Amino acid sequence: MNPPGSLRVLEEKEKEHLATPIVGPSIHSDNPQERIQARRLRIAARLEARRRETLGEHLDGKESEEDQSKSYKQKEESRLKLAKLLLCGTELVTNIQVAADIREVHRRAEEEEIKRQRLEKLENEVKTSQDKFDEIAMKWEEGKQKRIPQELWEMLNAQQVHCAGLVEDKNKLISELQQELETKHDQYVKDLKKQSGDICLLLERMEEQVKNVMKTFRQELQYIEKAFEVERQELLTNNKKKWEQALQAHSAKELEYLMNRIKKVEDHEKQLNKQRIWDCEEYNTIKIKLEQDVQILEQQLQQMKATYQLNQEKLEYSFQVLKKRDEESTVIKSQQKRKINCLHDVLNNLRSKYNKQVKQFQEENQSLTSDYKRLVMQFKEMQKAMRHFALIDDKQFREIWLMNEEEAKDLISRAFDVDRVIHTHHLGLPWTAPDFWFLKNVGPISQQQRKSATQILEEVLMEAEEEGAEEAASEPGSYLDLPKQVSAKTTRKILMLLCDESGFLIESKLLSLLLPLDKNECYLLKLDAIFSALGIENEDDLYKLVNFFLKYQAHHSPPSQERTSLVSPLEKLDLQGEKEGSLVDREPQEKQPPPSPRLIHPNDVLKILEAFVTGLRKPRDFRAPVKLLKVVRDDSKDSEYWKALTTVIPATTLNLWDALYTALEKYHLVLTQRAKLLLESRSLEWQDTELRQLLQQYLDAKINSELQAPPTQVFRVPTK
Amino acid sequence: MEETQITPSLSVPSWSSASTQDQSSTAGQASSTGPQPSKSSVIPPPVKSKGPSPGAGVRRMRRIIAEDAEWSVATVPLLTELCIQHIVKNFQNNPILKQLLPEHQKKVLNQLSPDLPLAVTANLIEDENYWRRCCTQRWPVCHVDEHGGSWKRMFFELHLENLLKHFIPSTTDPEVILSLLPLCRNYVHTIRVDQFLPPVQLPPPLRGGDQSDSSSEGEMEEPATGHYQLGDLVAGLSHLEELDLVYGVKDCGMNFEWNLFLFTYRDCHSLAATVKACHTLKIFRLTRSKVDDDKARILVFSLLDHAALEELDLSHNLIGDRGARAAAKLLGHSRLRVLNLANNQVRAPGAQSLAHALAHNSNLVSLNLRLNCIEDEGGQVLAHALQTNKCLTTLHLGGNELSEPTATLLSQVLSINTTLTSINLSCNHIGLDGGKQLLEGMSDNKTLLEFDLRLSGIAQESEYLIGQALCANREAARQRALSPSHFMSPATAKGPENLAG
After folding, report:
1. Count of domains forming chain B
2. Is B495 within a domain?
3. How far apart are CA B442 and CA B458, in angstroms?
4. Does the ipTM exceed 0.85?
5. CB nearest A17 (choices: B426, B463, B474)
6. Looking at the domain assignment, is residue B241 inside a domain?
7. B280-332 pLDDT tens trace
8. Which residues lie in Basic and acidic residues bias regions (chain A) (predicted)?
9. Measured between CB atoms, which of B398, B464, B492 is closest to A101?
10. Considering the domain boundaries, does residue B151 fall inside one?
11. Does B499 contact A18 at a Cβ distance shorter than 8 Å?
12. Which residue from A127, B65, B340, B419 has the highest number of Cβ atoms inside 10 Å of its Cβ?
């Protein structure tokens, strides 16, 4: 541990390398205050230099630096100064610790060295003493062998001396060590003192440092405050100057404004005067004019007064008149009142009458409505009757038609017979019966009666029923005039499907009623209900529906192929109910036509129906008038028909017949002549015979026999 | 109302003006004069004030008379005042505080005596003023800043410290301390004890070292029991963050004995267990306690993976390389930020293990190896470690017999590292060349703020230049702190640098 002197030396060294030669208070002086002063000056100078440099650097570049001005500079300066001071101060204070550290380090090094030496010494000592001890121990052995007491004594003495020497050595060592210890003790005490001295110094320095720091802080604060003050003063003066300048400018302007204002005021006064004079003149002229006006008006007033009096008199007169009139009007008023009363009475009467009449009319109305109802009923009855009559008429017409037709056909057949006879017998020609359409016709001609949907249904179903029986002799197209592409079977399937799927269209009541019925009837009724719901009324609609189904299925067929497997078992089930017998035969047949309606998936039915119904709506609208027309029978073809009947025999044949007739007539004539001739000849023959007989008789009479001649030669000549 | 003091000998007029509010001075005065006037706070009972007047002849007696003309006996204080008086008087038996209005609470607290038993006041009174009075009454110097700015905390910490300091094992009843536990558990954050009295056979050998003439020099017995076991106490303190212990005796004077300064294995084990159990502990200091390698290892192993520990201070002990190795292991297994091993016996191997730990550590901020003997070997290894470390800011290697090779390596570190702000290499043998090299390293560094090279054999010129560079760095750091956007910093930083160059 160093004495304080050495510490100071250290410290000074420390300072020296920081120091730059400065005149004035020396850092090397003994007075701490002076030293501090010196250091501070040095720092200030250094800072000043630095500041100058930075200022010089930034002078041209940054004007803002200047703007920040004195206070900022002062602050920066003080800050740097204080930082330096603090740094130096702490360095100063910690110097003691560092010095102590290095002393400790040195001490340790020395201690280690001494320790090492001591250990060495001790080891040497141990060795030597051990040798000595060994020697002594050896001698003990020797002594034991000695028999002569003198020798032994001597040897013992020698041993004693040796031992004493050994002990002495040890003692010496001990005393040496103890001495060392004592010196160490002293050293320790010294160290302690030094350390306490160090601590004292440390405290002193710390206090000094604190004082210094406080002092400098205060000073710097003052400086800063001063700087601020100065800056403030400058600012104030600057602002004052500015303020004064502004004030001056302001007053000058004010003056200018004042002058302007005065000028303006003068101008205005002049103008005012002018205006006044002008106004006065105008006033005078107007006054004169107005006075004239007043005179005129007074004259007018006089006139008006005169007229007024006149008018007054007139008015008085008219007042009188009015009074009289008033009296009259009061009289009239009373009269009118009376009249009004009368009229009120009348009105009341009329009202009562009106009410009565309303009642009456209501009654009438009621009666009339009842009449109307009755009439409607009657009308309906009439219609019914009419329908009945129509039916009857139809029937009658049909019967008459049939009758006539029969008659005609008889006649025709006769004609044909005749014709045939003529041809075969008379002309020798082969005869072929003419084949006309009307010949086969039976009953009145009509356009094919439209069948209602239900009828067709019935038919279809019936067909199906029958089908089971007459499967082998099936004539698929014959029984119905369905569109060609649609077979009855498919139709039927579609209908069944429809029936099964659209059960919701049927009323529940109906369903309950249907339960006990036969299957076919059940279907029939169900379909009927469904069609009525869908608005399907006749054949065409039905076919449309069926076609629609088929088309739809055709459009959607590719995916439906997959469905076949799904659907077919369902259909099988459907089918089973009706065709138990023929099921086995039918299966393969039915599977072959690929676009079978059976492939329609039940789930699609509703979609199809929906599409169909929306499609059907449109043509529906113009159906009504057509229906009316249908009632009137179409008799255009009748006359044609009948005419055709008349011309069953063509004109050529007729001509032929005419020719034949004439020929035959001629022939007849010839024949009749012949007949006559025959008759003549016969009579002649008879005469002949008679004559013969007579002759015979005569002959017989013997006279004749000689007169005999052949008569044929006599008679044959005239027949030719 | 005014109190005047009629003391013929001491005519202190200024004292009379120092009115009744100056509690501490009246209290201080009261101890000398007697208990009577100390009770007289705001409204002194008139009878008492008049009582002493006939006995004015007695020296150092205070007499209080009414000088105010308007004052009369008839003036009756307000009922609230009387109530408050009563509450204050009987506070020990019936503490009523929380039920009062705030202004009344204030009055009561102002008038309460600081001598009230802690059992009453500890958990009831939060008022800082009261605890301030308590502290200033008991201790002449109070640094409230060292106790988190809270007077109450300071009072309890100092009180506990006092008890611990004067606790004599197997003589003092441990209940004395444990009974305080429920009172102070919420307020004590720090325990600083710089003396643990050893158990003694002679009953009053060292009562705080006051008795100087007890002759116990020749007894050199091993202590049967250790020092006070902190375990129970520390377990009870829920907010304990700092533990600062010195196993030693202060002011022993000529009664010095080596066994006064024994930190036994028993102590060590119990302390280790205590520290391990205390999960809130952040700072642990055990200095000047003759902790050797084995004890250090015991302590360090108990601290491994401690969740909260941030600072470990084992300075001024006898820790060698093995202890240093243990500390290095701790660096890898904790979140230690500060490690202080100053004035120990760490040599190169210990420094090597520390350097190894340091190279991969990202928590440690400060490392102090002052007054060890790591020498160049250790110094070089540490310098290597610093090339990879990105966390350490403070490094103290003063008095470590370092020389030029370390300086060369450190100068390389200086040019690379950007985290170090303070290095201390004082009291080494760095030499002139080493100084130059360090100066070179410094010229590339922009972060170092402190670099202590005193008494290390460096040329003054280089030391001065290093100082200039440090100044520039400090200036830059200040600019950075002022404006985070680095706007002005380069311009201002250049100025001083140019000066230095």
Report:
1. 1
2. no
3. 14
4. no
5. B463
6. no
7. 999 999 998 889 999 999 999 999 988 899 999 999 999 999 999 999 999 98
8. 578-590
9. B398
10. no
11. no
12. B340
